[in-house]
Design brief:
Shape: globular
Structural class: alpha/beta
Largest sheet: 7 strands, parallel
Distance between the termini: 59 Å
Helix content: 25-40%
Number of strands: 20
Strand order of the largest sheet: 9-8-7-6-4-3-12
Length: 493
């Protein structure tokens, strides 16, 4: 560890808020077994897997364990990335507002992947910005106010500011004098510039940069370890590396993942655990998995790891329409499920969504994508929650951009038991969930409903309670077989 951690301003306590729903159902959620671990104050995120949890999704899905909360309930995360890449320094995160989280929850989403940047956190070596930490804390307070779970993503694009982007500070960028040429019409091509690739190699191999990266995570995790909104930490966004002569991209990606990313994630996991013993750790492969290439990542030696790939298609990123006959989604699903099946870790897709959602086949894309993601993930974060064009979820009026309304559907935020099947039929407007209620611990299953009128019924020995905030709760008899049906009321205003 690099000596003493310094900040550029005096320590100021961050406001702590509690989850809105937490107080309402706290008594029912508290584990009932005599020797259960006491409930942690406010934060409902410290994981506690139950042996009876098997897999998210539907029958025939890969055997992938679900993400769970500290009550052992199987979680489903549905949400969006929240970001401000444009503002830095004193203006950092100024484009993120409380309204972002109010709107997310109003549409039925319970999850945000919050982009933060190392170059803002540590503008000079060993000097951490108290101003930035307070701004991150303020955003997390808004998320907690609206009961939105957050993963803090230490984000980089094309390594960082030395190459005109955000991420790793310029002082932590070493290129050995290799060439860099900007590609303003294809920014992702900049990852393959020699200087950028060499910078990643130094980050993975230089002892002082490895310590600096770990120390940055100690600062973040130490500051927000007990924040009620924080579910976990995404250790680095879309990591890349240096190709060797004669390597094709898939071979290089697997080598980088195995030889460089795996030890990096184990180092960073150790760093985070020194400050936060409970949060989930999200680890990403290289973006090459988007081409249906299985990852070369090895085991991360931590019990609470989430595999967090991204779900992008090269052709669609370049503006092409979705081609259902190409089989891309099927190939991606086959490849991306190998790692979580092998290492028995949950999956949450950290980014997905095309830049142009209005093309002729995009309605089919969103339906196919939502069905696929529902088969093997514990959730996802679309890219990106903003008002405008391109990737934005909403247009300037606040309405969903074309076809993105298909991401807002009923789902079970938390299931107190073993999920047998779960799925939404957009044509009929019916969501069905079947599960075996847990015999110990929480009895409360929570449902999220998008705007509109919905009828919720529960079969088996269970009862339903509705509230006025687009939520429903199912209380089941321990060990009972439960079927929940959510049906849209057609013609309702």
């Amino acid at each position: 560890m690099r000596g003493t951690v310094h900040t550029d301003e005096p320590e100021v306590p961050v406001l702590r808020t509690t989850l809105t729903a937490g107080a309402v159902v706290a008594a029912l959620l508290t584990p009932a077994t005599p020797h259960a671990r006491p409930a942690a104050p406010a934060r409902p995120t410290a994981p506690a897997r139950l042996a009876e949890q098997v897999t998210p999704g539907v029958p025939g899905a890969p055997r992938i364990p679900p993400l769970t909360d500290r009550y052992g309930r199987a979680l489903t995360l549905r949400g969006w990335n929240v970001e401000d890449k444009a503002h830095r320094g004193d203006q950092a995160l100024s484009a993120v507002t409380e309204d972002d989280f109010r709107e997310l929850r109003a549409e039925g989403f319970d999850f945000a992947r919050l982009l933060v940047f190392w170059d803002d956190l540590e503008p000079r070596p060993g000097r951490y910005s108290e101003t930035y930490l307070r701004r991150v804390g303020r955003v997390l307070d808004w998320a907690a106010r609206y009961d939105v779970k957050v993963v803090i993503d230490l984000h980089q694009d094309v390594y960082g500011p030395a190459f005109g982007h955000r991420g790793v500070p310029a002082w932590a960028t070493r290129t050995d004098g290799l060439a860099f040429t900007a590609h303003p019409d294809d920014w992702f091509a900049e990852y393959f510039e020699p200087a950028v690739q060499r910078a990643f190699t130094h980050l993975y191999t230089d002892p002082d940069l490895r310590r600096a990266q770990a120390d940055a995570w100690r600062v973040l995790a130490g500051r927000f370890a007990r924040h009620p909104a924080v579910l976990g930490y995404d250790l680095i966004n879309e990591p890349m590396g240096e190709m060797r002569p004669g390597e094709d991209l898939a071979t290089a990606a697997r080598r980088i993942e195995h030889d460089q990313l795996t030890p990096m994630y184990n180092r960073l996991a150790h760093a985070v655990r020194s400050a936060d013993p409970h949060a989930w750790l999200f680890v990403e492969p290289t973006p090459v998995v988007g081409e249906g290439v299985p990852t070369g990542l090895g085991r991360i030696e931590d019990p609470e790891v989430v595999y967090a790939p991204h779900f992008y298609n090269t052709a669609m990123e370049a503006g092409a329409d979705y081609d259902p006959a190409a089989g891309w989604i099927e190939a991606y699903e086959r490849a991306v499920t190998r790692y979580p099946e092998q290492y028995r870790v949950p999956v949450v897709v950290g980014e997905w969504g095309p830049p142009d959602s209005g093309l002729p086949h995009m309605n089919r894309f969103y339906r196919d994508a939502m069905a696929s993601l529902g088969r093997y993930t514990s959730g996802w974060a679309g890219y990106v929650w903003c008002h405008g064009g391109g990737y934005c979820a909403l247009d300037d009026t606040g309405a969903f951009r074309p076809n993105k309304q298909l991401t807002a559907e009923p789902y079970a935020e938390a299931v107190a038991g073993t999920v047998r099947s779960a799925g939404y039929d957009a044509t009929s407007g019916v969501y069905r969930l079947t599960y075996t209620a847990a015999r110990h611990g929480s009895r409360v299953t929570e449902l999220s409903l998008p705007p509109g009128r919905w009828r919720v019924t529960a079969g088996g020995r269970a009862s339903v309670r509705r509230d006025t905030a687009g939520r429903a709760r199912v209380l089941a008899v321990p060990g009972g077989e439960v079927t929940v049906t959510v049906t849209v009321v057609r013609g309702a205003s």
